[in-house]
Amino acid sequence: MTEQPKKQPAAQGNPTRQIDPQKPAGIDPSSTTLDETTRRLAERTRALEEALGRMEAILASIGDGVVLEDLEHNFIPLNDAAKIMLQDMADHFLGGDLEELVTENPDEEASTSDPWLIERRRFEMGGKVIGAHSAAVRSKDDERLGTVVVLRDVTAEAEADRLKDAFVAHVSHELRTPLTAIKGYSELMLIGATGALEDEQRHFVKRIHHHTKSLVNMINTLLDFSEMEARGELALNRHPIQLSTLVEEITEPWYLQMDDMQLAFSVEIADGLPQVSVDEKRLQWVIENLVRNAWQNTSEGGSVSVRLYEQSGNVVLDVTDTGIGISAHAQQQLFTRFYRVERTANIRGIGLGLYVSKAVLDAHGGKIRVSSERGVGSTFSLILPALQK
Ligand code: ADP
Predict the structure, then answer these.
(1) Whose CA is nearest to atom 8 of ligand 1?
(2) Helix (H, G, I), strand (E, B) or coil at 121
(3) Average pLDDT rounded to a whole number, residues 148-153
(4) Burial of 69 (C-beta count, 10 Å sphere; 0-12/13-18/19+)
(5) Does the CB atom of residue 344 touch ligand 1 within 6 A?
Protein backbone atom coordinates (compact mmCIF):
# COMPACT_ATOMS: atom_id res chain seq x y z
CA MET A 1 0.00 0.00 0.00
CA THR A 2 1.42 3.38 -0.92
CA GLU A 3 1.04 6.21 1.63
CA GLN A 4 -1.01 9.14 0.42
CA PRO A 5 0.63 12.55 0.89
CA LYS A 6 -1.05 14.48 3.71
CA LYS A 7 -3.25 17.31 2.59
CA GLN A 8 -1.76 20.73 3.22
CA PRO A 9 -4.16 23.55 4.20
CA ALA A 10 -4.63 25.79 1.19
CA ALA A 11 -2.57 28.92 1.48
CA GLN A 12 -4.33 31.52 -0.56
CA GLY A 13 -2.19 33.58 -2.87
CA ASN A 14 0.96 32.10 -1.41
CA PRO A 15 1.16 28.55 -2.53
CA THR A 16 4.78 27.84 -1.66
CA ARG A 17 6.40 28.80 1.65
CA GLN A 18 10.17 28.99 1.93
CA ILE A 19 11.49 28.36 5.41
CA ASP A 20 14.64 30.30 6.11
CA PRO A 21 16.68 28.38 8.72
CA GLN A 22 18.68 31.59 9.54
CA LYS A 23 15.57 33.45 10.60
CA PRO A 24 14.85 33.36 14.36
CA ALA A 25 11.59 31.75 15.26
CA GLY A 26 9.35 34.74 15.91
CA ILE A 27 5.86 35.90 15.31
CA ASP A 28 5.40 36.33 11.60
CA PRO A 29 1.76 37.13 10.91
CA SER A 30 2.25 36.43 7.24
CA SER A 31 3.27 32.85 7.96
CA THR A 32 1.20 31.87 10.96
CA THR A 33 -2.44 31.65 11.66
CA LEU A 34 -4.13 33.91 14.18
CA ASP A 35 -4.41 30.98 16.59
CA GLU A 36 -0.70 30.32 16.36
CA THR A 37 0.08 34.02 17.03
CA THR A 38 -2.25 34.08 20.01
CA ARG A 39 -0.70 30.88 21.40
CA ARG A 40 2.81 32.27 21.09
CA LEU A 41 1.82 35.57 22.64
CA ALA A 42 0.26 33.74 25.56
CA GLU A 43 3.43 31.67 25.95
CA ARG A 44 5.57 34.76 25.98
CA THR A 45 3.35 36.54 28.46
CA ARG A 46 3.54 33.47 30.73
CA ALA A 47 7.33 33.40 30.44
CA LEU A 48 7.53 37.11 31.20
CA GLU A 49 5.20 36.72 34.18
CA GLU A 50 7.31 33.85 35.47
CA ALA A 51 10.52 35.90 35.10
CA LEU A 52 8.88 38.84 36.83
CA GLY A 53 7.61 36.57 39.61
CA ARG A 54 11.10 35.16 40.10
CA MET A 55 12.60 38.65 40.17
CA GLU A 56 10.03 39.81 42.74
CA ALA A 57 10.69 36.75 44.88
CA ILE A 58 14.44 37.42 44.77
CA LEU A 59 14.00 41.11 45.62
CA ALA A 60 11.56 40.25 48.42
CA SER A 61 13.93 37.71 49.96
CA ILE A 62 16.91 40.06 50.35
CA GLY A 63 17.09 42.22 53.43
CA ASP A 64 18.51 45.24 51.61
CA GLY A 65 16.17 47.93 50.34
CA VAL A 66 16.35 48.20 46.57
CA VAL A 67 15.19 51.50 45.10
CA LEU A 68 15.16 52.77 41.55
CA GLU A 69 15.76 56.47 41.09
CA ASP A 70 14.31 57.34 37.69
CA LEU A 71 15.44 60.16 35.43
CA GLU A 72 12.93 62.55 37.03
CA HIS A 73 14.56 61.74 40.40
CA ASN A 74 11.53 59.82 41.66
CA PHE A 75 12.42 57.08 44.11
CA ILE A 76 10.57 53.87 43.34
CA PRO A 77 10.86 51.15 46.01
CA LEU A 78 11.36 47.77 44.37
CA ASN A 79 10.85 45.61 47.46
CA ASP A 80 9.21 45.70 50.88
CA ALA A 81 12.50 46.39 52.67
CA ALA A 82 12.90 49.51 50.52
CA LYS A 83 9.34 50.63 51.29
CA ILE A 84 10.03 50.38 55.03
CA MET A 85 13.39 52.15 54.75
CA LEU A 86 12.00 54.97 52.61
CA GLN A 87 9.17 55.43 55.10
CA ASP A 88 11.71 55.53 57.95
CA MET A 89 13.77 58.06 56.02
CA ALA A 90 10.73 60.23 55.42
CA ASP A 91 10.00 60.09 59.19
CA HIS A 92 13.57 60.87 60.22
CA PHE A 93 14.51 63.41 57.61
CA LEU A 94 11.47 65.60 57.47
CA GLY A 95 12.23 68.33 54.97
CA GLY A 96 15.52 66.66 54.02
CA ASP A 97 16.31 65.96 50.43
CA LEU A 98 16.29 62.24 49.78
CA GLU A 99 18.35 62.66 46.65
CA GLU A 100 21.17 64.32 48.58
CA LEU A 101 21.11 61.55 51.13
CA VAL A 102 21.65 58.78 48.66
CA THR A 103 23.85 60.54 46.15
CA GLU A 104 26.02 63.03 47.97
CA ASN A 105 26.62 64.94 44.78
CA PRO A 106 23.82 64.04 42.36
CA ASP A 107 25.44 65.78 39.38
CA GLU A 108 28.70 63.97 39.87
CA GLU A 109 26.92 60.67 40.43
CA ALA A 110 24.86 61.07 37.29
CA SER A 111 27.95 61.48 35.19
CA THR A 112 29.61 58.26 36.34
CA SER A 113 29.12 55.19 34.25
CA ASP A 114 30.57 52.82 36.83
CA PRO A 115 28.50 49.66 36.64
CA TRP A 116 29.35 48.62 40.21
CA LEU A 117 27.41 49.31 43.34
CA ILE A 118 29.55 51.85 45.14
CA GLU A 119 28.93 53.04 48.66
CA ARG A 120 28.17 56.72 48.17
CA ARG A 121 27.04 57.64 51.59
CA ARG A 122 26.43 56.45 55.13
CA PHE A 123 23.87 58.01 57.40
CA GLU A 124 22.29 57.28 60.76
CA MET A 125 18.64 56.53 61.00
CA GLY A 126 16.74 55.45 64.09
CA GLY A 127 19.84 54.03 65.82
CA LYS A 128 21.01 52.22 62.67
CA VAL A 129 23.70 53.12 60.18
CA ILE A 130 22.51 52.79 56.61
CA GLY A 131 24.90 52.64 53.66
CA ALA A 132 23.54 53.86 50.34
CA HIS A 133 25.18 51.95 47.48
CA SER A 134 24.32 53.01 43.97
CA ALA A 135 25.06 52.26 40.35
CA ALA A 136 23.87 53.70 37.07
CA VAL A 137 21.27 51.63 35.21
CA ARG A 138 21.74 51.59 31.46
CA SER A 139 19.91 49.89 28.63
CA LYS A 140 21.66 47.58 26.15
CA ASP A 141 22.06 50.65 23.91
CA ASP A 142 23.81 52.47 26.75
CA GLU A 143 20.86 54.75 27.33
CA ARG A 144 20.70 55.96 30.94
CA LEU A 145 17.54 54.67 32.62
CA GLY A 146 18.17 55.81 36.17
CA THR A 147 20.10 54.76 39.23
CA VAL A 148 19.64 51.65 41.30
CA VAL A 149 20.19 52.40 44.98
CA VAL A 150 20.64 49.65 47.54
CA LEU A 151 20.06 50.74 51.12
CA ARG A 152 21.96 48.39 53.40
CA ASP A 153 22.06 48.19 57.18
CA VAL A 154 25.81 48.62 57.85
CA THR A 155 25.54 49.18 61.62
CA ALA A 156 27.92 46.28 62.38
CA GLU A 157 30.55 47.46 59.85
CA ALA A 158 30.29 51.03 61.16
CA GLU A 159 30.87 49.78 64.71
CA ALA A 160 33.88 47.72 63.56
CA ASP A 161 35.27 50.82 61.80
CA ARG A 162 34.75 52.90 64.93
CA LEU A 163 36.61 50.34 67.05
CA LYS A 164 39.43 50.17 64.50
CA ASP A 165 39.74 53.98 64.44
CA ALA A 166 39.70 54.12 68.25
CA PHE A 167 42.42 51.45 68.32
CA VAL A 168 44.58 53.29 65.75
CA ALA A 169 44.15 56.55 67.67
CA HIS A 170 45.03 54.91 70.99
CA VAL A 171 48.13 53.10 69.70
CA SER A 172 49.29 56.23 67.87
CA HIS A 173 49.00 58.29 71.05
CA GLU A 174 50.94 55.71 73.02
CA LEU A 175 53.71 55.56 70.39
CA ARG A 176 54.02 59.29 69.96
CA THR A 177 55.27 60.02 73.50
CA PRO A 178 58.36 57.74 73.52
CA LEU A 179 59.16 58.60 69.90
CA THR A 180 59.04 62.32 70.64
CA ALA A 181 61.49 61.68 73.48
CA ILE A 182 63.90 59.74 71.20
CA LYS A 183 63.68 62.51 68.59
CA GLY A 184 64.32 65.21 71.22
CA TYR A 185 67.32 63.43 72.77
CA SER A 186 68.86 62.71 69.39
CA GLU A 187 68.50 66.42 68.54
CA LEU A 188 70.26 67.32 71.80
CA MET A 189 73.11 64.93 70.99
CA LEU A 190 73.45 66.40 67.51
CA ILE A 191 73.85 69.94 68.85
CA GLY A 192 76.57 68.67 71.21
CA ALA A 193 74.67 68.69 74.54
CA THR A 194 76.43 65.43 75.50
CA GLY A 195 79.82 66.46 74.21
CA ALA A 196 81.39 66.43 70.78
CA LEU A 197 80.49 63.45 68.60
CA GLU A 198 82.91 61.58 66.44
CA ASP A 199 82.03 61.41 62.75
CA GLU A 200 80.66 57.88 62.94
CA GLN A 201 78.66 58.64 66.10
CA ARG A 202 77.23 61.76 64.44
CA HIS A 203 76.31 59.69 61.39
CA PHE A 204 74.46 57.11 63.53
CA VAL A 205 72.62 59.70 65.63
CA LYS A 206 71.64 61.53 62.44
CA ARG A 207 70.09 58.32 61.10
CA ILE A 208 68.23 57.75 64.39
CA HIS A 209 66.95 61.31 64.28
CA HIS A 210 65.91 61.09 60.63
CA HIS A 211 63.95 57.83 61.03
CA THR A 212 62.35 58.91 64.28
CA LYS A 213 61.19 62.10 62.57
CA SER A 214 59.49 60.05 59.82
CA LEU A 215 57.85 57.84 62.43
CA VAL A 216 56.52 60.85 64.36
CA ASN A 217 55.28 62.27 61.07
CA MET A 218 53.44 59.04 60.21
CA ILE A 219 51.90 58.87 63.65
CA ASN A 220 50.68 62.46 63.44
CA THR A 221 49.09 61.57 60.09
CA LEU A 222 47.33 58.61 61.66
CA LEU A 223 46.07 60.76 64.54
CA ASP A 224 44.66 63.37 62.16
CA PHE A 225 43.15 60.60 60.07
CA SER A 226 41.48 59.02 63.14
CA GLU A 227 40.10 62.40 64.18
CA MET A 228 38.66 62.95 60.75
CA GLU A 229 37.09 59.51 60.57
CA ALA A 230 35.61 59.86 64.05
CA ARG A 231 34.26 63.42 63.72
CA GLY A 232 33.84 63.72 59.98
CA GLU A 233 36.05 66.84 59.97
CA LEU A 234 39.18 68.34 61.49
CA ALA A 235 38.93 70.77 64.38
CA LEU A 236 41.09 73.78 63.48
CA ASN A 237 42.86 76.25 65.69
CA ARG A 238 43.06 79.19 63.28
CA HIS A 239 44.98 82.46 63.53
CA PRO A 240 45.87 85.10 60.95
CA ILE A 241 49.47 84.52 59.89
CA GLN A 242 51.95 85.53 57.26
CA LEU A 243 52.52 82.35 55.28
CA SER A 244 55.92 83.54 54.07
CA THR A 245 57.41 83.25 57.59
CA LEU A 246 56.06 79.72 57.96
CA VAL A 247 57.34 78.68 54.52
CA GLU A 248 60.81 80.06 55.30
CA GLU A 249 60.90 78.14 58.60
CA ILE A 250 59.77 74.88 56.99
CA THR A 251 62.07 75.02 53.98
CA GLU A 252 65.23 76.13 55.81
CA PRO A 253 66.30 72.64 57.00
CA TRP A 254 65.52 71.18 53.60
CA TYR A 255 68.44 72.89 51.81
CA LEU A 256 70.87 70.43 53.43
CA GLN A 257 68.68 67.41 52.91
CA MET A 258 68.12 68.26 49.23
CA ASP A 259 71.83 68.83 48.80
CA ASP A 260 72.55 65.38 50.28
CA MET A 261 70.45 63.90 47.45
CA GLN A 262 72.07 66.21 44.88
CA LEU A 263 68.84 68.03 44.22
CA ALA A 264 68.74 71.74 43.41
CA PHE A 265 66.37 73.47 45.84
CA SER A 266 64.93 76.94 45.50
CA VAL A 267 62.37 78.93 47.45
CA GLU A 268 60.74 82.01 45.95
CA ILE A 269 58.46 84.16 48.10
CA ALA A 270 56.60 87.17 46.68
CA ASP A 271 56.77 90.46 48.63
CA GLY A 272 53.85 92.01 50.52
CA LEU A 273 51.61 88.97 50.60
CA PRO A 274 48.29 89.23 52.45
CA GLN A 275 47.77 87.19 55.61
CA VAL A 276 45.81 83.95 55.75
CA SER A 277 43.79 82.56 58.63
CA VAL A 278 45.13 79.04 59.23
CA ASP A 279 45.82 76.33 61.74
CA GLU A 280 49.57 76.81 61.67
CA LYS A 281 50.54 73.33 62.90
CA ARG A 282 48.31 71.58 60.41
CA LEU A 283 49.43 73.72 57.51
CA GLN A 284 53.06 73.23 58.47
CA TRP A 285 52.44 69.49 58.35
CA VAL A 286 50.85 69.72 54.88
CA ILE A 287 53.69 71.81 53.43
CA GLU A 288 56.33 69.51 55.00
CA ASN A 289 54.54 66.58 53.45
CA LEU A 290 54.53 68.11 49.95
CA VAL A 291 58.22 68.97 50.16
CA ARG A 292 59.04 65.47 51.43
CA ASN A 293 57.02 63.87 48.62
CA ALA A 294 58.88 65.99 46.04
CA TRP A 295 62.22 65.05 47.63
CA GLN A 296 61.32 61.33 47.77
CA ASN A 297 60.13 61.13 44.19
CA THR A 298 62.92 63.03 42.43
CA SER A 299 66.18 61.39 41.55
CA GLU A 300 69.70 62.81 41.77
CA GLY A 301 70.40 65.79 39.57
CA GLY A 302 66.75 66.92 39.58
CA SER A 303 65.27 69.98 41.22
CA VAL A 304 62.59 70.94 43.71
CA SER A 305 61.23 74.47 43.94
CA VAL A 306 58.78 76.17 46.28
CA ARG A 307 56.93 79.28 45.20
CA LEU A 308 54.58 81.43 47.28
CA TYR A 309 52.51 84.14 45.58
CA GLU A 310 49.13 85.85 45.44
CA GLN A 311 46.55 85.07 42.77
CA SER A 312 42.91 86.17 42.46
CA GLY A 313 42.36 86.84 46.15
CA ASN A 314 44.18 83.68 47.22
CA VAL A 315 47.63 82.92 48.55
CA VAL A 316 49.07 80.05 46.51
CA LEU A 317 51.95 77.76 47.34
CA ASP A 318 53.43 75.63 44.54
CA VAL A 319 55.79 72.76 45.23
CA THR A 320 57.30 71.70 41.90
CA ASP A 321 59.66 68.83 41.21
CA THR A 322 61.32 67.36 38.16
CA GLY A 323 60.72 63.84 39.48
CA ILE A 324 59.06 60.70 38.24
CA GLY A 325 55.64 62.32 37.76
CA ILE A 326 52.21 60.77 38.24
CA SER A 327 50.00 59.24 35.53
CA ALA A 328 46.61 60.82 34.77
CA HIS A 329 44.90 57.70 36.14
CA ALA A 330 46.83 57.84 39.44
CA GLN A 331 46.18 61.59 39.74
CA GLN A 332 42.45 60.90 39.99
CA GLN A 333 42.97 58.71 43.04
CA LEU A 334 45.84 60.52 44.77
CA PHE A 335 43.64 62.20 47.36
CA THR A 336 41.74 59.08 48.40
CA ARG A 337 42.64 57.26 51.58
CA PHE A 338 45.43 54.67 51.57
CA TYR A 339 46.15 55.27 47.88
CA ARG A 340 49.78 54.70 46.92
CA VAL A 341 51.22 54.76 43.44
CA GLU A 342 52.32 51.17 42.79
CA ARG A 343 55.72 51.92 41.37
CA THR A 344 56.62 53.85 44.53
CA ALA A 345 56.14 50.76 46.69
CA ASN A 346 59.81 50.92 47.70
CA ILE A 347 59.24 54.40 49.18
CA ARG A 348 57.85 54.21 52.70
CA GLY A 349 54.49 55.76 53.44
CA ILE A 350 50.93 54.85 54.32
CA GLY A 351 49.07 56.59 51.52
CA LEU A 352 47.37 59.06 53.84
CA GLY A 353 49.51 62.18 53.35
CA LEU A 354 47.56 63.68 50.46
CA TYR A 355 44.21 62.45 51.78
CA VAL A 356 44.76 64.25 55.08
CA SER A 357 46.28 67.28 53.28
CA LYS A 358 43.11 67.62 51.22
CA ALA A 359 41.00 67.39 54.38
CA VAL A 360 43.12 70.14 55.98
CA LEU A 361 42.72 72.41 52.94
CA ASP A 362 38.97 71.66 52.72
CA ALA A 363 38.57 72.58 56.40
CA HIS A 364 40.25 75.94 55.62
CA GLY A 365 37.96 76.60 52.65
CA GLY A 366 41.00 76.14 50.42
CA LYS A 367 42.02 73.69 47.71
CA ILE A 368 44.86 71.38 46.79
CA ARG A 369 45.62 70.77 43.12
CA VAL A 370 48.05 68.61 41.20
CA SER A 371 49.40 68.85 37.70
CA SER A 372 51.86 66.20 36.69
CA GLU A 373 53.32 64.29 33.80
CA ARG A 374 55.09 60.92 33.93
CA GLY A 375 58.83 61.32 33.55
CA VAL A 376 58.63 65.13 33.62
CA GLY A 377 57.60 66.06 37.15
CA SER A 378 54.78 67.33 39.32
CA THR A 379 53.43 70.52 40.83
CA PHE A 380 51.23 70.41 43.91
CA SER A 381 49.48 73.71 44.67
CA LEU A 382 47.86 74.81 47.93
CA ILE A 383 45.28 77.56 47.44
CA LEU A 384 44.16 79.48 50.54
CA PRO A 385 41.72 82.41 50.66
CA ALA A 386 43.63 85.60 51.55
CA LEU A 387 42.48 87.89 54.35
CA GLN A 388 41.62 91.48 53.35
CA LYS A 389 44.74 93.65 53.50
P1 ADP B 1 52.41 58.54 51.36
O2 ADP B 1 52.25 59.05 52.75
O3 ADP B 1 52.36 57.06 51.28
O4 ADP B 1 53.56 59.17 50.61
P5 ADP B 1 50.70 60.36 49.92
O6 ADP B 1 49.22 60.49 50.10
O7 ADP B 1 51.55 61.49 50.38
O8 ADP B 1 51.09 58.99 50.61
O9 ADP B 1 51.02 60.09 48.39
C10 ADP B 1 50.22 59.17 47.65
C11 ADP B 1 51.03 58.56 46.51
O12 ADP B 1 51.38 59.59 45.59
C13 ADP B 1 52.32 57.93 46.98
O14 ADP B 1 52.46 56.67 46.35
C15 ADP B 1 53.39 58.89 46.53
O16 ADP B 1 54.59 58.28 46.23
C17 ADP B 1 52.77 59.55 45.30
N18 ADP B 1 53.28 60.93 45.18
C19 ADP B 1 53.04 61.94 46.05
N20 ADP B 1 53.71 63.05 45.70
C21 ADP B 1 54.40 62.74 44.57
C22 ADP B 1 55.32 63.46 43.71
N23 ADP B 1 55.66 64.74 43.97
N24 ADP B 1 55.82 62.80 42.64
C25 ADP B 1 55.46 61.51 42.37
N26 ADP B 1 54.64 60.76 43.14
C27 ADP B 1 54.12 61.37 44.23
Answers:
(1) 351
(2) strand
(3) 87
(4) buried
(5) yes
Ligand 1 centroid to Cα of residue 341, in Å, is 7
Cα separation of 135 and 118, whole Å? 7
CATH superfamily of 233-389: Histidine kinase-like ATPase, C-terminal domain (3.30.565.10)
Task: Tell me the per-residue pLDDT of 5-20, one tens digit each, with 9 for 90 and over.
Answer: 444 444 444 444 444 5
Residue whose CA is closest, atom 13 of ligand 1? 340
Quote the ligand 1 centre to 289 CA distance (angstroms).
9
Ligand 1: does its nearest atom lie under 6 Å from the Cβ of 293? yes
Distant-in-sequence, close-in-space partners of 122: CB < 8 Å, separation ≥ 6: 129, 130, 131, 132, 154, 158
Span 330-385, pLDDT tens digits: 898 899 888 888 765 566 677 888 988 999 999 999 999 999 999 999 999 999 99
Of 18-32, 59-73, 260-274, 333-347, the range with the highest mean pLDDT is 260-274
Residue 210 has pLDDT above 90, yes or no: no
Q: pTM for this one?
A: 0.62
Domain boundaries, the chain: 61-105+120-153, 161-232, 233-389
Q: Residue 319 CA: which ligand 1 atom is closest? A: 23
376 pocket-lining for ligand 1 (C-beta < 6 Å): no
Average pLDDT of the chain, as a whole number: 83
| Atom 16 in ligand 1: residue holding the nearest Cα | 344
Judge if the beta carbon of residue 359 lies within 6 A of ligand 1.
Answer: no
> Which positions ≥6 away from 244 have C-beta within 8 Å?
269, 273, 308
Tell me the CATH number for domain 61-105+120-153: 3.30.450.20
- Whole-number Å distance, alpha carbon 298 to ligand 1 midpoint, is 11
Q: How far is CA 72 from CA 76, 100, 102, in A?
A: 11, 14, 15
Ligand 1 centroid to residue 326 C-alpha, Å: 9
